[in-house]
Amino acid sequence: ETLTLQAYKQAPWRAQYDILMQELLKLEADHPDLVTEDSPSQRVGGAVLEGFATVVHSSPMLSLDNA
Predict the structure, then answer these.
(1) CB-hemisphere CA count at 13 Å for 1?
(2) pTM above 0.85, yes or no
(3) What does the pLDDT read at residue 31?
(4) Is 28 in a helix, a strand, or coil?
(5) Strongest mean pLDDT among 7-16, 17-26, 52-61
(6) 6-41 CB burial, b ≥16 within 10 A, e <16
């Protein structure tokens, strides 16, 4: 079953995930030698799909700062 975007944003585990990700980012910033290429901070989602055009956004996508 898939979650709607609204349900996903309100999911209780999302806040904990965000906290853990911020802790990981701080740890890696303080100890760069611990950063590995399979770290969640070093990868984004799944494979890049082909066939889509690049889009220039008229305003910054601020949510990407916390992606």
Answers:
(1) 4
(2) no
(3) 98
(4) helix
(5) 17-26
(6) eeeeeeeeeeeeeeeeeeeeeebeeeeeeeeeeeee
User: Can you count the helices (H) and strands (E) in the chain?
Assistant: 2, 0
Q: Which domains does the chain have, with CATH numbers?
A: 5-66 (1.10.287)
Q: How remote is the C-alpha of 33 from its chain's centroid?
A: 21
Report whether pLDDT(67) > 60: no
Which amino acid would we find at residue 51? G
Q: What are the tokens at 5?
A: 């975007």
Residue 49 to residues 40, 54, 66, 67: CA-CA distances in angstroms?
A: 20, 12, 22, 18
